[in-house]
UniProtKB/TrEMBL annotation:
This is site-specific DNA-methyltransferase (adenine-specific). InterPro entries: D12N6_MeTrfase_N, DNA_Adenine_Mtase, DNA_methylase_A-5, DNA_methylase_N6_adenine_CS, SAM-dependent_MTases_sf, T1MK-like_N_sf. Coiled coil: none annotated. Its EC number is 2.1.1.72. It catalyses: a 2'-deoxyadenosine in DNA + S-adenosyl-L-methionine = an N(6)-methyl-2'-deoxyadenosine in DNA + S-adenosyl-L-homocysteine + H(+).
Length: 483
């Protein structure tokens, strides 16, 4: 129903000089969607208040409401072109009046967990990238066609927004930082099995894929208004350092049905982990922290195991943030399992001694679009040392890529075998007592795999064929010249 509208919005953005990448398209769509959502939410709240015979004080005062500046309607319900701003007037209003007013909500909000505070945070972080008020008018008219009223409409919008995030992740640059393949997230959640009442945390929230999928997993379990209230307010927590990701995470969670997401815009690693107290801990942690980043010495001072590698600092943060008996599933690059530097060895030792690292899922190359690293997923419970590690080597039987991404079927066997730690041609168990107590090497070595043969990619084979063809043509030309 809304798919064509989304395509038309992208077409408008492509013509706009201020928007050049998929990241820009997603950012600009996000703030427009958010204000349209807010308008409908306020409408619903007003109706509810009237039914209860109570007055309703809107969050946004009249000049800043969607129906005043974005889509003023006549008595016929159609856009009133006499009242609707366009061209330079519209850009001046958005940049000079609307955004400054919305940014001010951060100071005026009663508390950080309110929608008012989120409004201030969002509009303090993003810029309007429309230079043409005519393009912006076109986009506003398209956004106004969308509706969030029914569950079906919200479901479709959340699906279309996920597609935008996926496209952004595939577009290269740093878009991939925000996108973890959803089939992998769903498999991780199926292994961890969250329940209503668990506090679930992602300290590198990105586009909030883990929290949204966990909400979708838990929603059918909600049997009462109390359960729904718990899911809305006391279940999902996240932190995100980057402005664009923060805005996308908020919008993604809202579209999935969480009205005021508990996402903080902060550098998670800026917190000294010794300051984490029991009240700050979580039952479940699901995350794919950025890897390959380098942190400054003052950030490293917040951690007992000093390292510049961002992902290793996050892993220390996650272990500390997990309550005793809590469960985590963390994506990390596979070199963590075997690196011989002091920090990697110390971190593996810490993980094995303070947690039960019961499962390691080895992912194939190409799982993450545009990332040249192989990854593993660590599943662990805090509070008891590791006795056995069950490994599973995922092999989908094809080369992974943009046109051939990971799907739910690829992970079905892993989820099924993991439930009983079953041995198979792709899975095996290693006793912690057999792990080298000096290096704590956790490398993925399938004892039944036999000699490993390095398989070349089709591209490499075709390149070699082309080179041999060129060589043959040269030799034939030389022979002909001799005749």
């Amino acid at each position: 129903m809304f798919e064509q509208t989304f395509k038309n919005i992208d077409d408008v953005l492509r013509k706009e000089a201020g928007c050049t990448t998929e990241l820009d398209y997603t950012e600009q769509t996000s703030w427009l969607l958010f204000l349209k959502y807010l308008d409908e939410l306020e409408g619903d709240r007003q109706i509810e208040a009237e039914l209860r015979g109570q007055p309703y004080a809107p969050i946004l005062s009249a000049p800043y409401q969607w129906g005043t500046w974005a889509a003023p309607k006549g008595v016929d319900g159609k856009l009133d072109h006499n009242k609707a701003m366009t061209g330079p007037d519209l850009i001046d209003f958005v940049n000079g009046t609307l955004f400054p007013h919305l940014q001010g909500f951060k100071q005026r909000a009663p508390a950080p967990d309110t929608l008012e505070y989120k409004i201030g945070e969002i509009f303090g972080e993003i810029k309007n990238r429309f230079n043409s008020g005519y393009s912006l008018r076109d986009a506003l008219d398209l956004i106004d066609q969308l509706s969030f009223r029914s569950q079906d409409q919200k479901h479709e919008l959340s699906h279309l927004y996920e597609v935008k995030i996926k496209n952004m992740g595939n577009a290269g640059r740093n878009g991939g930082e925000y996108y973890t393949p959803r089939p992998l997230i769903r498999a991780m959640i199926q292994v961890v099995k969250p329940r209503i009442g668990d506090r679930i945390y992602d300290g590198a929230v990105g586009s909030a894929g883990f929290l949204c999928e966990a909400y979708d997993y838990l929603k059918p379990q909600a049997k009462s208004t109390g359960d729904n209230e718990t899911l809305q307010r006391r279940t999902f927590y996240g932190k995100e350092k980057k402005s664009l990701a923060y805005v996308i995470a908020i919008m993604n969670m809202i579209l999935h049905g969480i009205e005021a997401p508990n996402i903080l815009h902060t550098n998670t690693l800026g917190e000294n982990i010794n300051d984490i107290q029991e009240k700050d801990r979580f039952d479940i942690i699901l995350a794919n922290p950025p890897f390959g980043g380098k942190e400054r010495p003052e950030i490293q001072q917040n951690f007992p195991i000093k390292t510049g590698e961002t992902a290793f600092l996050f892993l220390q943060h996650f272990i500390k943030s997990l309550r005793a008996g809590g469960t985590a599933a963390i994506v990390i690059k596979n070199t963590f399992l075997s690196n011989s530097d002091n920090a990697s060895v110390a971190l593996r030792k810490e993980l094995l001694e303070s947690c039960n690292l019961h499962t390691i899922l080895d992912m194939p190359g190409g799982t993450f679009q545009g990332a040249g690293v192989k990854t593993v997923v660590l599943f662990f419970e805090k509070g008891e040392p590791t006795k056995h590690i069950w490994y599973y080597q995922l092999d989908p039987g094809r080369n992974m890529g943009k046109t051939n991404p990971l799907n739910d079927n690829d992970l079905a066997e892993f989820v099924e075998l993991q439930a009983r730690f079953a041995t198979s041609p792709k899975s095996w168990t290693v006793a912690a007592s057999s792990i080298d107590q000096t290096s704590f090497d956790l490398s993925v070595k399938n004892p039944d795999a036999g000699e490993q043969v390095a398989l070349r990619s089709p591209e490499a084979i075709l390149e070699e064929i082309a080179a041999l063809d060129a060589e043959s043509a040269t030799i034939l030309a030389e022979i002909k010249a001799l005749l």
